Amino acid sequence: MQPSDIKPNVIVQGPIFPERVKVITSIPMGDSIKLIGEGMETGKVHQPVLNEEQIAELEVSSEKVFFHTRYWKMCHAIFRYSSSQAHRKMSTTLSIRPDSISMIMLRLKLKKTDRA
Fold first, then answer.
1. Rounded to an integer, what distance in angstroms lies between the CA atom of residue 77 and that of residue 83?
2. Which of the following CATH numbers is that of domain 3-62: 2.30.30, 1.10.390, 1.10.490, 3.40.50?
3. Distance in angstroms (rounded) separating the CA atoms of residues 61 and 65
4. Which of 1-10, 30-39, 103-112 has the lowest mean pLDDT?
5. Cβ neighbourhood burial of 82 (10 Å; 0-12, 13-18, 19+)
6. For the segment 4-24, what is each residue's pLDDT rounded down to a tens digit?
7. How distant is the alpha carbon of residue 109 from its chain centre?
8. Where are the domains of the chain?
């Protein structure tokens, strides 16, 4: 890997890091680069200063992060909650029994025949 390949939103992994790391930014420091990134599993911030040898050992895992794990879990939780609330509202507003519906339909038919 080249120092120019380290850019924001790139996921890197290698022997330097205990987990895959999403690059937030990189700062050149002479022959080295300070990489600031977020761990994909733990969310911890990693800030190592890497020399050229360490940069060469890094591998690019993916170009961009589409769904961050915590973001996806939060969306799923919101969806489950909203679905349960919608179901609860539907069950309380539609508390009409099937025989009540048939009685309503019968009354409507009777009203139509009375008009004729």
1. 10
2. 2.30.30
3. 10
4. 103-112
5. exposed
6. 888 898 899 999 999 999 999
7. 52
8. 3-62, 69-115
Long-range CB contacts for residues 18-27, cutoff 8 Å, separation at least 24: 20/61, 21/46, 22/65
Q: For residue 63, what are the CA distances in angstroms to 5, 6, 37, 43, 56?
A: 10, 10, 14, 18, 17
d(CA 109, CA 104): 9
**Is 58 exposed, middle or buried, given 0-12, 13-18 or 19+ CB atoms closer than 10 A?**
buried
**DSSP 8-class letter at 15:** T
Can you tell me which residue has the tokens 């895992």? Answer: 61
Residues 65, 43: Cα–Cα separation, whole Å: 14
pLDDT value of position 33: 93
